[in-house]
Amino acid sequence: MKADWRRSLRRRVAGAACGVLCAMAAAAQNHPFASHPVPYAGTSIAPSHLAQATLDQQVRDFYNQWKERYIRQTCGAGRYVVAANVIDGGNLTVSEAHGYGMVIMALMAGHDPEAKAIFDGMYAYLREHPSVYFPNLMAWYQRKSCVSAEGGDSATDGDLDIAFALLLADKQWGSCGAVDYAAAAAAVLDDVVAGEIDATGSYTLLGDWASPSEIAYYEATRSSDFMPDHLRAFAAATGDPVFGDVLDNTYQVFDTLQTVHSSAGLLPDFIADPLGAPHPVAPFFLEGPNDGAYDYNACRDPLRIGTDFLVSGDARAKTVAERITSWFRSATGDDPTAIGAGYQLDGTLSPDADYRSMAFVAPLGVAAMVDAANQDWLEDVWDLTVATSIDDEAYYENTLKLLSMIVMSGNWWTPPAVAGGCSPQVTPLCTDGGYLTDVQLRFAGLTAGADRQKLILKGNLFFAQGIPVAGPYTNGAQVLIEDLGAGGAAIYEVSHVTTPVPPAAAGGCDDRDVWSVKPSRTLYKNASGALDPPLCTAGSARGLSRLKYQRKSDRDIALQLKAQRTTLAAPIGPLRVTWVLGSTAAAGDTGACAVSGELECTGSGSSLRCQ
After folding, report:
1. Residue 42 near residue 369 (C-beta atoms within 8 A)
2. For residues 139 and 91, what is the distance between their CA atoms, to the nearest angstrom?
3. What is the CATH topology of the domain spanning 1-34+49-196?
4. In 3D, which of 41, 45, 42 has the Cα closest to residue 373?
5. Segment 177-219, tens digit of pLDDT
6. Distance between terminal CA atoms of the chain?
7. pTM over 0.85, yes/no
8. Active site residue ranges
9. Residue 585, Cα to own-chain centre: how many angstroms?
10. Which of 20, 58, 388, 524 has the greatest CB tally within 10 Å of its CB?
11. Which residues neighbour 213 within 8 Å (Cβ) at sequence distance 6 or greater?
């Protein structure tokens, strides 16, 4: 049985430049960060000692640090992960981190122009790392080799955040583009119900690996997998009553635990017998000696429960959050710097927990928001959270800190509470297409005069939902290189606006103007200098001599283009490249296209390199 990674991480943190190049033009969003689209429940509070603009900016500042440290483009062009590296030197990420990252990207859109590109890349990554049991759930662990390991099964918390993030994305960007977020969320939730909720529909399982054949694990749940605001969103999206049943039943379980098993009102990491007499599990149930204590799983409970009150006003959430908050305020003398990193349910500090961790501090700020009596405590928690350096903590602590700051600053919202709709990403040739990644663009002979210059373009067409047209991609092509520094002027263009690369069926202007297809690649060669049979206008090829496709996966096509004896304007930069899989305007209008991010150029004189 796999053990949770937090046990070893806790020991490590006691003493203890990411460049995203694949984004299209910044995606339009319906609910940009700092727009505060959903007012919190009427009796809730927020930090009031700072202006709202200051709170928002402190979140932005920490997000920027978090993104630089943890977001990585890896495991294929266009794919992104949260580099958790939490278990051993070979670990890349875990599904829990992936879920956090997707939620954060959907909420930070509007501040981060790359948020949608990263989100789509994270979606593609999770689709390529499914659980061995349910294809729409995510395998919980991947190695740096990008291979799923440790059983390849799921962890419920990661999948619940992923499903919630997809619903956020549907409302943030709409589902009529390259990725149908609503359909993706529905597929995940179907498998959540089938594989991560017990047969009676009453509680969340530990993962899709927990089966009735292992009754001790099947009849157990993790307190931090209870995400009531997520369950409300799932119920609204699907109409399935099971999500409401899990919400109601788990609140009853929490009440029993707080009133019968914890004099401090704390909740344990793991709960046994949630359908009968709920109680904390024994030590070493799954992870270690504190499995039945308030430890590195349950420390998230104040965040989850406090958030539910803020968005729903549910009195049960307030009761649970207030019991936890009241005990911590009393135990620390209203000094959040005295919060330890793990407690037994009677309130005694756990062994080796006499240090401060943002995993325990920051979520308590969210719980404090349920009652005005906690105003000073909330503001002290906020200040301590902001003042703690990212260097003092590890992935888990810093990520819970960021999520808690988003909530405390009033920037959390839920999908059922807002309107959605599509805001298409449109460039001159491409609407809601994919991403042109890993672009390398070389200009030569720029000072040599007209018809003596050369262009070489390499890159990768990446479609998070899958390549939108079938191979071998011989229906023509369009290429546009724009100089954004010159008002979007076309440096090089072969498109339906000028003259596109013709489809194979149209023939060529020379016997050597041909498409050729092999299993490993598709190649177009032009020798005539013309692209418009039967007219065959001289020079219409703009020097294009060849283009080549190599399909890499269901989501990737590597490409190359060469143009020589052409005429190019000297770029000002930055540049942007659009590629269309087809010769017609309809191909770009229906998303069979990809757009690069802004390309910066280096070099001088006759030669430039842009990437």
Report:
1. no
2. 13
3. Glycosyltransferase (1.50.10)
4. 45
5. 889 999 999 999 999 999 999 999 999 999 999 999 999 999 9
6. 46
7. yes
8. 96, 157
9. 31
10. 524
11. none
